[in-house]
Amino acid sequence: MRLGNALNMFWQLRGHASEPRQFADAMLAQTASDFRLRPAALHLAGAFAYVQGDFDAARRLLTEALAEARTAADWPTVLLALERAGLLAAAADEFAASKRFEAMAASDSRRRENSRRSSLAWEVIFSRSPKLASQGG
Questions:
Q1: What is the CATH number of the domain that holds 31?
Q2: What is the pLDDT of residues 75-101, one digit of tens each?
Q3: Taking the model in full, what pTM does it have?
Q4: Hey, which of 2, 58, 68, 130 would disulfide with 50, CB 3.0 to 4.6 Å?
């Protein structure tokens, strides 16, 4: 699956859609539902279904990718799935839905950034206070 993710941009720039979609579908067929990279495979399959104009499959795959990525706390895939779902909605003339996906992506991104900043702040506090670090807060 890492290979598929690495080739994603290559496939997009070269205009390939069938090969990456088949690759992702094959990966999904061979992996367990709890496979760590499954949300990324779902996103890849959904993204290339969108490129092929198979909007029904794209919508189903991206919805599943988004749900599984959120469950797995795979935030890069969450944002990628939201972005592609927004593009899909816009392509289908569903502009209100597209705006909702954009808002969700912005909200998730801000929440992640705030969480990361909070984590960094606690790391700085703990690193300066051995007593706090030894007590975990």
A1: 1.25.40.10
A2: 989 999 999 999 999 999 998 998 999
A3: 0.73
A4: 58
